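Why should sequence recovery work at all? Because a backbone constrains its sequence more than one might expect. Tight turns favour small or flexible residues, buried strands favour hydrophobic ones, and helices have their own preferences. The token representation captures these environments compactly. In the example below, the structure is given first.
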């Protein structure tokens, strides 16, 4: 509480959220995070504050500073108007108690709408450039925007095009519970209904302006990513300088930059004579503008209603399209596109001549993007929101599919990630809306894995921290540190905290099924166990007692987490293992925690088409001294090629291959020792080990000690391991415990012979003759490799299509609770496939 102002703010907000009653006639307005009282919230405010029907309402503006703000000064003596700073105590109180919340961007991550509040998000433009998940750059840039939208009751749009883009780009289709409105933008009314003489007089108080001259406005958008805006001040300064020098007679130049860019130039003395302050409403300004120069900004859509010339200055068109992305073809824009200042100057001088040339495009854009901009959009939106007079232009996007929420474990390089990706690439999206919730910050590995998900999957990203009371915070931290193995502690579980956090993250979205697909992360296990969901499922991807006892660098890796997760199994409707044998082991070892009737198993899904396509993928090969290498990465500098490559299998030699995390349970140490014994007798054998992990240094050191460093190849992590695996002779798995090894299923798809230690997870796949099960020891692995070298391994064809259908049937039945018809054992046997039969 002393050292962290963010934590103090959360404590205060939670107190107000829980204790304050909603005040029916209070409206909180916010635009651009409190930077100004502008945009559609301002248009709505102007109507309400002057309308006798709403005389009894109190209007609260989130405004970080009113100093020099002519808009704020106009209302400082109004008894029913109050100004508060974002994050201040008063702001927190109104955020938790005002009935109506109106915002054109987002409220902070700690905000969550409470029962009785009505949240209206007006957004702030028709999108030319991409939004949400469509933006290029880092994953989850839009996380707080998406979270805010999930809380809204109304999303206001200027046209159906914008409504569709907002919904699709923020993964709201099918799950959003609010109402979409496309009755026009209130803010455009500020342009159409403005008193132009008053606006010019107001501008004259701010910048040097000649009332006898026409106005050219340069309004560029911002560059960069949502949380990392590029500083283009120098570019803007140079552009303004050149435009200023050559502006046509009878015109004057003004500058209005995007609110995200304003902080970089607001104190620049060289621009202060032409730069319009951030708190000035753009739409009121547009009413007195005679020529607009912009780039990729949505400002031009609003300006269309003036029917005056627009010039598009896109000096970085190729770079911007590549780095950000656009929705609309630029060659269809209602004005000339210029690449340099000289072209802009020519277009300024001939603006009136160019205008008729673009008449058809101009009218087409007005018809498509401004169909409701008639000066009465504010009135229609207000009647919908405050009087519930819904029109034909109000609609909902919720569908009748069942909503499933999954947490998949961070999308690290492991079997859980592979099985999650395969499952989500196989599910029936005609019946389910699938939402994956995950962390907010991604490295290259997790980004790559996240991007492998089926495009139908809706991705949400956690932002912010739990809204908590002091007591709830203490209880939560105590449970995280001490666990719940003591039954008496269960009465102290802060269930309200976890329900509140679910609501903070997902707003009004309702989920029928939640799946903790990871089963290793206490935070998500707690949220899913105690959240208000209809059906709750948690997965066990391994022998969980063995995981509990696993040590890495002399420390128990999972023990602390499992001390909390094991005791809350009972709060889930189903505890799913990934194989029958694994379920039986977990039931036996954890019978204290697993109610027998809740234990079930569901096989992992596979993606055979993807594996086969990767086998056939022609990765770059390079021949050096009669030996082929699989090129991992390469650079060319000053005519010199540098590359890292993996030696491909050589003719006349036998190549064993292992793939998995380099960690104790995979036990590549045992495999290397066994291989060294085989290599003593058979000089022509080689071993590939694909993967990375904490034991890499130790394992490489072991190969040197055993004298096989020239015969064991550590490849590291491969984006496509299957081209290498398919050229090897035999796959070998040395694990001490597994749930249901994905690598064995993938090896079966590749069609390579398999040797595996006889552990429950591997037995569930190979026991019917699909591979060689050997004793879990060095001697067992030696025997298996000898059998392969003597051509004594039996293999059996794997019917992966039928396997996948059965795995999906299990998922729908056990996880989703559907009635799924089971194939008979006789039918399965005729198909000649492995299936781990239920009773």
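From this structural description, the recovered sequence reads:
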């Amino acid at each position: 509480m002393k050292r962290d102002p963010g934590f103090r703010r959360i404590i205060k907000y939670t107190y107000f959220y829980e204790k304050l009653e909603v005040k029916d006639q209070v409206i909180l307005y916010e635009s651009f995070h409190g930077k100004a009282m502008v945009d559609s919230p301002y248009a709505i405010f102007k109507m309400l504050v002057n309308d006798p029907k709403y005389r009894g309402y109190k209007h609260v503006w989130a405004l970080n500073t009113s100093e020099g703000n002519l808009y704020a000064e106009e209302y400082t003596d109004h008894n029913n108007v109050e100004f508060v700073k974002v994050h201040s105590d008063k702001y927190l109180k109104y955020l938790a108690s005002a009935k109506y919340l109106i915002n054109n961007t987002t409220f902070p991550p700690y905000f969550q709408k409470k029962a009785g509040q009505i949240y209206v998000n007006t957004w702030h433009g028709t999108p030319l450039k991409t939004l949400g998940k469509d933006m290029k750059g880092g994953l989850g840039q839009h996380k707080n925007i998406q979270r805010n939208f999930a809380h809204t009751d109304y999303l206001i749009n200027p046209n159906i095009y914008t409504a569709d883009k907002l919904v699709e780009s923020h993964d709201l289709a099918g799950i959003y519970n609010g109402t979409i409105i496309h009755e026009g933008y209130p803010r455009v009314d500020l342009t159409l209904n403005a008193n132009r003489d008053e606006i010019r007089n107001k501008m004259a108080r701010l910048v040097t302006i000649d009332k006898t001259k026409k106005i050219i406005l340069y309004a560029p958008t911002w560059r960069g990513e949502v949380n990392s805006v590029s500083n283009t001040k120098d570019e803007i300064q140079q552009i303004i300088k050149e435009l200023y020098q050559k502006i046509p007679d009878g015109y004057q130049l003004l500058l209005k930059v995007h609110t995200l860019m304003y902080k970089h130039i607001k104190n620049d003395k060289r621009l202060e004579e032409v730069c319009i302050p951030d708190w000035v409403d753009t739409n009121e300004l547009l009413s007195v503008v005679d020529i607009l120069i912009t780039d990729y900004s949505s400002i031009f859509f609003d300006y269309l209603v003036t029917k005056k010339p627009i010039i598009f200055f896109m000096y970085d068109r190729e770079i911007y399209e590549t780095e950000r992305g656009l929705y609309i073809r630029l060659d269809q824009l209602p004005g000339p596109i210029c690449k340099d200042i000289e072209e802009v100057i020519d277009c300024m001088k001939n603006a009136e001549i160019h205008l008729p040339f673009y008449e058809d495009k101009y009218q087409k854009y007005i018809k498509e993007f401004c169909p409701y901009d008639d000066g009465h959009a504010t009135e229609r939106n207000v009647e919908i929101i405050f009087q519930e007079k819904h029109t034909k232009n109000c609609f909902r996007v919720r569908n009748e599919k069942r909503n499933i929420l999954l947490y998949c474990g961070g999308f690290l390089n492991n079997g859980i990630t592979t099985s999650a990706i395969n499952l989500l690439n196989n599910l029936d999206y005609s019946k389910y809306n699938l939402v994956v919730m995950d962390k907010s910050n991604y490295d290259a590995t997790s980004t790559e894995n996240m991007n492998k998900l089926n495009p139908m999957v809706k991705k949400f990203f956690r932002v912010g921290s739990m809204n908590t009371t002091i007591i709830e915070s203490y209880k939560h931290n105590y449970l995280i540190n001490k666990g719940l193995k003591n039954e008496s502690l269960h009465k102290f579980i802060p269930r309200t905290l976890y329900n509140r956090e679910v609501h903070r993250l997902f707003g009004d979205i309702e989920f029928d099924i939640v799946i903790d697909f990871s089963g290793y992360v206490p935070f998500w296990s707690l949220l899913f166990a105690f959240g208000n969901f209809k059906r709750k499922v948690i997965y066990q991807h391994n022998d969980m007692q063995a995981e509990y006892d696993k040590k890495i660098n002399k420390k128990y890796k999972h023990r602390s987490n499992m001390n909390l997760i094991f005791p809350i199994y009972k709060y889930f409707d189903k505890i799913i293992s990934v194989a029958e044998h694994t379920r039986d082991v977990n039931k036996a070892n954890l019978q204290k925690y697993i109610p027998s009737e809740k234990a079930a198993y569901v096989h992992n899904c596979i993606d055979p088409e993807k594996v086969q396509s990767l086998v056939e993928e022609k990765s770059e090969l390079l021949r050096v001294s009669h030996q082929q290498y699989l090129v991992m990465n390469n650079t060319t500098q000053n005519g010199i090629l540098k590359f890292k490559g993996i030696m491909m299998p050589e003719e006349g030699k036998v190549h064993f291959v292992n793939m998995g995390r380099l960690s104790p349970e995979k036990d590549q140490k045992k495999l290397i020792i066994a291989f060294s014994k085989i290599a003593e007798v058979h000089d022509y054998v080689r071993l590939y080990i694909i993967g990375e992990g904490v034991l890499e240094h130790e394992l490489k050191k072991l190969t040197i000690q055993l004298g096989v460093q020239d015969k064991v190849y550590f490849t590291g992590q491969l984006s496509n391991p299957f081209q290498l695996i398919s050229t090897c002779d035999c796959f070998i798995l040395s694990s001490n415990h597994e749930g249901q090894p994905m690598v064995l299923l993938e090896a079966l798809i590749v069609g390579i012979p398999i040797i595996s230690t006889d552990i429950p997870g591997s037995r569930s796949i190979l026991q019917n003759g699909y591979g060689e099960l050997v004793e879990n020891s060095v001697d067992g692995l030696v025997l298996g490799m000898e059998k392969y070298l003597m051509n004594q391994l039996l293999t059996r064809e794997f019917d992966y299509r039928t396997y996948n259908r059965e795995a999906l049937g299990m998922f729908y039945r056990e996880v989703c609770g559907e009635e799924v018809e089971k194939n008979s054992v006789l039918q399965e046997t005729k198909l000649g496939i492995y299936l781990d039969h239920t009773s």
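A few observations help interpret the result. The chain has a mean pLDDT of 92.
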